[in-house]
Write a structure and sequence with these properties.
By secondary structure, the chain is α/β, with parallel strands linked by helices. It has 16 helices and 14 strands. The protein starts with a helix and ends with a helix.
Length: 499
C-alpha cells in the first residue's frame, strides 16, 4: 500500500476525530429532538386480549364433515370486527364510546386454524384500551354463542313442528302404516336429543387485556435511538462537508496531502514573549538538532519558514538555536528584518545583550551561552532593493565558508514569497512550520512546489497548535513576574535544564 492509499483510508477517521465535538453536538441535538417528539406527539396505547374460539357445529347431522373444517379465518375476523359486536361492546363499556370509533380502533387477527383470535384496541388512555379490548372480546364470544343458540332454537322448533304433524298423521292413519309413522317420530326425537347435547358456548378469554402488557406509540426509546442515529449521520455528513470547503490546515493529514509525506512532530507553539520551553518542546528541538547532524547532506545553514505568516519563525528560532548551542557548537541566528511585534520574542530566557550595531544589523550575544549569537538585520530602505529581508548582508553572511558556525535564518511574518524563495535558496535545508488553523492549504502546496523547484531537502514539517491569545496573555504576565522577581535564576534554569 502506498502513501496515497494510506492517506485515503485514514482520512475518514481523521475527519471524524477532528470534528468530533460537532458530531457529538449533533447527536445530542438528535436525542433532544427525539425525546421532545416522543413527549409532545399524541400517545396511543394498544391493549390486546387473546380468546379461544370453540367449534360450534352448524350442521350437526352431517357425519361426513370434520369439526376442524367448520372454522374459517376470514369469517372469524369479520365477525369479531363487525358492527353488531362493536355495538354490544360499546353497550358493555357504557362510557359513551361511539360504535364507529370503536370499530375503527379495533384490530382482529386470527390464527391460521382460527381457533385463537387476538383482539387489539387502541386509544389515548391505557385503562380505556384495556377495557375496550376486553369488551370487544367478550362481545365477540357472546355474539357467537347467541348465534348458535338462535340456530339451535330454530332447528328445535322445526323438529317439534314435524313431530306434531306426524302425530296427527299417526292418529288418522290405518294400523298398517302406524309403525312407519312411529319410526319417523322416533328418529326426529333422537335428533332432538342430539341437538340438545350441542354446546353453544362461543369460547373463553385466554389472556385478558387487563392482565397483559400495553404497547404505546410513539416509543420513547425508539424516538431517542432514531434521533441519535440521525444526529450521528448528520454530524458526520456536516463534518465531511466542512472538511471539503475548509481552506485552512487543520491537522497533519492536510500537510501530507499538500505534498510533504512526513510530518516530523506536533507541539504547542510558544506565543508569549516570556514563554518557557516545555518538556515536549525541548525534546522536539533536540530531535531537530539530531536530524540535522544525521542528515546525509552537509547542513550548515537552516532556513525556518513559517507558512502561516504569524511570526512563529522568529519565536521558535531562538529556542532551536539555543538547543544547538547547548551542544557546544557556535550558532548564529539571523532574524531577517524583524518588526516590533516579532522582536525580541524568545530572547528573554537567554539574556541576549547588544554588542554592536551597524547600518545593516544589530549583533547580540547570550550571557547564558557565549557560543550563541543573534543578528537582527535591518531592512533596506534606500534605492530599489528587490528584497528588504534577504539583503546583501544576509547573502554575504551565509556565503561565509566558516564551517565552525551553524546559521539559522528566521523570516518575519510579513516576509514576501520571494523572500521565502531566496532564504530557502541560500540555505542547505528548510524547517517548515505549519501553524494549524492559520495556514492555508494552498500556501502549503505552493511552498512545496517552490522547494521542489529548488531541489532543497526539507528537514521536517512541524505542525503546530497555537495557544489562544487569552492563555498567552495570562502566561506572559505570570512569567514576566517571575523574571522581575528572580531574573538570574530563571535565566540559568532556561539555559541549563528543562523548566
Amino acid at each position: 500500500m502506498n502513501f496515497d492509499d494510506s492517506v485515503d483510508l485514514n482520512i475518514f477517521w481523521i475527519i471524524i476525530r477532528r470534528h468530533y465535538k460537532m458530531i457529538l453536538l449533533f447527536i445530542v441535538l438528535g436525542i433532544s429532538v427525539g425525546a421532545a417528539l416522543a413527549f409532545l406527539l399524541p400517545k396511543t396505547y394498544t391493549a390486546s386480549a387473546r380468546v379461544n374460539v370453540n367449534t360450534i357445529v352448524s350442521d350437526p347431522f352431517n357425519p361426513t364433515r370434520a369439526a376442524s373444517g367448520l372454522l374459517d379465518v376470514i369469517t372469524e375476523e369479520a365477525t369479531a370486527g363487525s358492527w353488531v359486536v362493536a355495538k354490544q361492546a360499546a353497550e358493555n363499556l357504557d362510557n359513551g364510546t361511539d360504535v364507529t370509533v370503536l370499530r375503527q380502533n379495533t384490530v382482529v387477527r386470527a390464527d391460521s386454524n382460527a381457533t385463537t383470535v387476538t383482539i387489539s384496541y387502541s386509544t389515548s388512555s391505557e385503562s380505556v384500551a384495556r377495557a375496550g379490548a376486553d369488551a370487544v372480546a367478550t362481545a365477540y364470544l357472546e355474539f357467537r354463542q347467541q348465534q348458535a343458540d338462535d340456530r339451535k332454537a330454530r332447528i328445535s322448533d322445526q323438529l317439534n313442528r314435524r313431530i306434531d304433524s306426524l302425530r296427527k298423521v299417526y292418529d288418522s292413519t290405518s294400523d298398517d302404516t302406524k309403525p312407519l309413522v312411529r319410526d319417523q317420530i322416533a328418529t326426529i326425537e333422537s335428533q332432538l336429543n342430539q341437538l340438545a347435547l350441542i354446546d353453544t358456548d362461543g369460547g373463553s378469554v385466554l389472556n385478558p387485556a387487563a392482565e397483559t402488557n400495553v404497547a404505546s406509540e410513539p416509543s420513547k426509546k425508539l424516538f431517542i435511538a432514531a434521533g441519535a442515529v440521525f444526529g450521528l449521520i448528520g454530524g458526520c455528513l456536516l463534518a465531511f462537508l466542512v472538511h471539503r470547503i475548509d481552506r485552512k490546515v487543520r491537522g497533519a493529514i492536510d500537510i501530507q496531502r499538500a505534498g510533504f509525506p512526513t510530518v516530523f512532530s506536533e507541539t504547542i507553539a510558544p506565543v508569549t514573549r516570556y514563554s518557557q520551553l516545555s518538556t515536549q518542546q525541548l525534546d522536539l528541538y533536540r530531535t531537530v538538532r539530531e536530524k540535522v547532524l544525521d542528515s546525509s547532506i552537509f547542513i550548515r545553514t537552516l532556513c525556518i519558514a513559517d507558512l502561516g505568516r504569524i511570526g512563529l519563525a522568529t519565536r521558535v528560532g531562538p529556542q532551536i538555536a539555543a538547543i544547538f548551542a547547548q551542544a557546544n557548537e557556535r550558532v548564529e541566528l539571523l532574524v531577517l528584518s524583524p518588526s516590533e511585534e516579532d522582536f525580541p520574542w524568545g530572547m528573554e530566557p537567554y539574556d541576549f545583550q547588544l554588542e554592536e550595531e551597524t547600518a545593516e544589523a544589530r549583533f547580540y550575544r547570550s550571557s547564558i551561552m557565549q557560543q550563541l549569537t543573534l543578528i537582527a538585520t535591518k531592512p533596506v530602505t534606500q534605492g530599489l532593493a528587490p528584497d528588504p529581508f534577504v539583503t546583501n548582508f544576509v547573502r554575504q553572511r551565509v556565503s561565509n565558508t566558516d564551517e565552525a558556525v551553524f546559521r539559522i535564518l528566521a523570516l518575519p511574518r510579513e516576509a514576501f514569497e520571494s523572500s521565502h524563495f531566496s532564504a530557502a535558496r541560500i540555505s542547505d535545508s528548510v524547517l517548515i512550520l505549519v501553524p494549524y488553523k492559520f495556514t492555508a492549504k494552498a500556501d502549503v502546496k505552493r511552498y512545496h512546489d517552490l522547494i521542489s523547484d529548488l531541489q532543497k531537502p526539507v528537514l521536517a514539517a512541524l505542525g503546530l497548535h497555537v495557544v489562544p491569545r487569552a492563555h498567552a496573555r495570562r502566561a506572559e504576565v505570570a512569567v514576566r513576574t517571575d523574571i522581575d522577581t528572580h531574573p538570574k535564576v530563571l535565566s540559568d534554569s532556561q539555559g541549563t535544564r528543562t523548566p
